[in-house]
Amino acid sequence: MEANPSVSSGRSGLTHAEPLIIERSAPGRCGHSLPASFGHPETASADIPSACLRSQPAALPEVDEMTVVRHFTRLSAWNHSIDSGMYPLGSCTMKYNPRINEALARLPSFSDLHPYLPASHCQGALQLMWELAQYLAEIAGFAEVTLAPAAGAHGEWTGMKMIRAYHRAQGNPRRRVLVPDTAHGTNPASSKLCGYNVVEIKSGPEGILQPEAVAQVMDDSVAAIMITNPNTLGLFESGIGDIADIVHAQGGLVYCDGANLNSMMGVARPGDMDIDVLQFNLHKTFATPHGGGGPGSGPVGVCAKLVPFLPIPRVAKKEGQYLLEEDHPQSIGRVKSFYGNFAVMLRAYAYIREMGGGGLKQASQMAVLAANYLRAKLEGHYHLPYPSRSLHEVIFSDQNLAETKVSTLDIAKRLLDHGFHPPTIYFPLVVHGALMIEPTETENIETLDEFAAALLAIEQEAQHNPDQVRAAPQRTVVGRLDEVKAAREPVLRWPTKD
Amino acid sequence: MNIPGELKYSKEHEWVRVDGTIITLGITDYAQEELGDIVNVELPDEGDEVHREESFGAVESVKASSEFFSPVTGKVTEVNEPLLDAPETLNEDPYDEGWMIKVELSKPAELDDLMDADAYQTYIQEESK
Fold first, then answer.
1. Cβ contact (<8 Å) for B55 and A432?
2. Within this chain, do residues A116 and A169 fall inside the same structural domain, yes or no?
3. Complex ipTM above 0.85?
4. What residues does A207 pair with on adjacent strands?
5. A38-to-A43, A57, A59, A350 alpha-carbon distances in Å
6. CB-based contacts of A161: which residues, under 8 Å, 6+ apart?
7. pLDDT tens sequence across A111-137
8. Domain boundaries, position B74
9. How do residues A322-379 score in pLDDT, each as one tens digit?
10. Best mutation site among B56, B67, B68, B89 for testing chain A: the one with the most A CBs within 10 Å?
11. Do B53 and A426 touch (CB under 8 A)?
């Protein structure tokens, strides 16, 4: 397969240079008609306290509607998304978001619902939530599931809050949480926000956690272990049963980051591995949109002994009616306004119903197959730090290119010239110069072949013409950005004239 | 790779300068090199307790964000405040201007588990394999 950037899937089209919308502004230009009284303090609503009213109009860009439309359409053409090309961002699971789910989420009977409706007037929505929680509980093997958290990390925090509430109910909230070095990066922060000190445990030489390493630090000051399974090296934590026993023997709980559940639907259930709490990332496993930072959804499944601590309100079914229950005295309380991000739940529900049990299992199997297919194509050309069997993602490194001075960052930038979003880089931290590739089940074999061919071409180019790789990207709208300057000296405000 | 002979080193790539029961703590040249350009650093407050092997702060570079794990147990007596506004000092001068915190040790014997410069040199050679 040819993998010259000029002929593979990355191509130059008609791409417009586009300034900031503020720079398009012209005084007095306007794309809408508002009442003459609009924006004058004396005619403002009496509901707004005078102290909150502006004395001067806001310095908003003054532009006509066509300019606004073109501005954002042009910017959108600069963007890379799963709808424009392969997006193998390891750990993030950028799978296709089926359009039928979007159509369903826009049905007026759902989209017009008001969150203040009494339960009797939104039985259908409550039924959908109740059933989705049942499905998730069945898929992962838990007693109950809350749908309230608004994102994966929010789910982690909710889970850790429940763990803390559980220990407090036993008389001692405990002090520490164990986090392996192959866990998700958000886990230490979630523990800390719940008042715990984080203890890192190093994974063994095979890239998985050794039960002895857990036994060494486990004592009755440890509230829980936060383990990611499969871990961020894409490897199954085969010691999970022994690890759960060690933690439980000291009264601790086992939290599993469910971010990688997409590799084992219908094959293995965390609940059956004696895991007590797990968050689901609906935008990863159940194909809902990642949504540019939100809204997301991070339901949490718990084992029976943590059920009393679930957030309120809880959706319940009694005598054929669905209700919202608040009377749970041990609950950690509300974690989100209203009931969570319902429209995201709706998409996940639709995905599960469309796929069915067999379809979900096949999605996991195909995701694992795709990762291993890429692994087989790239092994020998890129360094594979952990040769154990990969699941849904495979981690390479830049080690074999050390002499060429081409780094992981350069490889990632050069992939843009080939029309692919780069994989996750420099994560997990246990691999120096990691390239973390997660193709997901979305891609067909031709696309996987094109992606592998691009990476193989970059490896050859690094050997023979390293400067070319180090100068990438060359075919994108903007070249390589000064990431250090952007992080150290961010300019976040347009300088107004006054 | 600069590994000063008079310091002690942890497996988490921190250096420790011992002065009686007070130690000064920072990250090694190897650590700053691995992290790349550092853009943010979080440190504990004076008077905070730190516990051995538990996190006490965090660092963010353009590549990654990671936690600092303390090699010792004790109380923070001093924090390098200027570092918070100039995190690049960790890259430029990790052993001197880039020190992070001073800790009054409550378990001085913990120092025995740290490596000397030679052992640390061997350790990073093993780790970067």
1. no
2. yes
3. no
4. none
5. 7, 11, 15, 43
6. A194, A309, A332, A335
7. 999 999 999 999 999 999 999 999 999
8. 8-107+115-120
9. 999 999 999 999 999 999 999 999 999 999 999 999 999 999 999 999 999 999 999 9
10. B67
11. no
